[in-house]
Amino acid sequence: MAKNKNVTQPLKTKVGFPFNNSNEKNVLILGQVINDFSIIETDLANINSLQLYKEMISKILHETSYNVIFKAHPWEKSKVNLKRSLTKDELTKFISSTFSHEERLRIEILEDFNIDSLFASCDHIVGLCSQSLIEAAYSGKKPHQIGNAFFGSKGFTYDHSTVENFILSIKSDTCKTKLTLLEYDNLLCFLTLLLQYHLVSVFPSGHVKLLEKLHIKKNINIIQNTTTDYELSPSKKIDIDNESADTSVLAFLEDRMSSNHHINTNSVIEYFLLSFISEKKFKKFKSNPKKYFQDSKYPFVSFLGKFY
C-alpha cells in the first residue's frame, strides 16, 4: 500500500521551485536517516551518508547545469539518539558556507513534502539504498542507486559504485529518466517475489506462509536420563503395510525395555506413532488415546494400545 509505518505522507501538491534555470533538469536526492542500518551494513568503502550527499551536491552543481532537490528523511528528528534533523541541518550549513549565491539558487532542501509530487517534478532520482527508490520506480522513473541496495541489479535501476559514476551517467545522452515496459515488468516481478516470500505481511493473508516458515516440529523425549548421556537416535519410518510391521514394533519395544536405560513406555509408543502418522492424527491420539487405539485399522497399533 506504499505507506511507511513511521512517516505519514503530506498531501500531494503541484511543485513549483524558484530555480533561475527552470528549463534545466532537476535531480532529486533521497536522504536517509544517518544511522540507517542499511547504510551501516553496506559494503561501500564510505558509509558516511552525509559526506556522500555533500559530494553528490557539489559534483552536480559544478559538473552539470542541473538543479538539486534534497529530500531529507522526516523520521530523523524522531530518532531517540538524534532528536533533530541532523542531515538537513548539516547540509544547510554546508551549502550556505560552500557555494556562491548563484549556485545556491539551484538548490532546494526539503523534509516534509509529498514524495510522489517530487517524483513527478524531477528527472533524475538518486539515493544510497533508500526504499523510496523502489517507490520512484513504481511511479515510472528509473532511479539511480549508490550503495548496493537489496533491490539493485534487478533490472529496473541504474547501479553505481561511486558518485563519479552517477555523475557520468546523468551527463550521458543515453541516460533515460523513465522505465521501459520491460524494466517496469522486472520491477513488478521483483515486488511480487519480495512481498510473497521475503517480507512479513501486516495482513492476515501472510499468516499461513509465516507459520510455515516458523513452524517447529515437536520433539518428544522418550528417555529419562539419570545415569548416562545415552540418546535414542530416530529410527527409520515403519512400513505399516509390511507384514513384518508387528515384528518391527515388538523388536523395538523388547530392545528398549530390556536395556539398562530408564525408559518411559508410553513415550516409546508415542515415538513410534510419530514415525508413521500425520500430525493431525497424532493430535487426535493425544486428545483421546483409548479411542484412537480402538479405531485403528492396524492390528499392531491396537496391540500397542494394551501397553499404553
Backbone CA Rg: 32 Å
**What is the count of helical runs?**
14
- Helix/strand-derived class? alpha/beta
Helix content: 40-55%
Mean pLDDT: 80
Give the termini distance in whole angstroms: 55 Å
Largest sheet: 6 strands, parallel
What are the secondary-structure elements, in order, as H or E?
EHHEHHEHEHEEHHHHHHHH
Major sheet strand order: 3-2-1-4-5-6
Task: Work out the number of β strands.
Answer: 6
Spatial shape: elongated
What is the oligomer described by this structure?
Answer: single chain
Question: Which stretches are low in confidence, meaning pLDDT under 50 for 5 or more residues running?
Answer: 227-243
The portion of residues forming beta strands comes to: 5-15%
List keywords for this structure.
elongated; 6-stranded parallel beta sheet; alpha/beta; 308 residues
Topology:
Elements: E1 26-30, H1 37-40, H2 49-63, E2 67-71, H3 86-98, H4 101-104, E3 107-110, H5 115-121, E4 124-127, H6 132-138, E5 144-146, E6 158-160, H7 163-171, H8 181-198, H9 207-214, H10 245-257, H11 265-274, H12 279-287, H13 289-295, H14 299-307
Parallel strand pairs: 1-2, 1-4, 2-3, 4-5, 5-6
Helix pairs in contact: 10-11, 12-13, 13-14
Commentary on this structure:
The chain has 308 residues and is α/β, with parallel strands linked by helices. The protein is built from 14 helices and six strands. It has helices at residues 37-40, 49-63, 86-98, 101-104, 115-121, 132-138, 163-171, 181-198, 207-214, 245-257, 265-274, 279-287, 289-295, 299-307; strands at 26-30, 67-71, 107-110, 124-127, 144-146, 158-160. Strands 3-2-1-4-5-6 form a six-stranded parallel β-sheet, sandwiched between helices. Helix 12 packs across helix 13 and helix 13 packs antiparallel against helix 14 (299-307). The two termini are 55 Å apart. Residues 227-243 have low confidence and may be disordered.
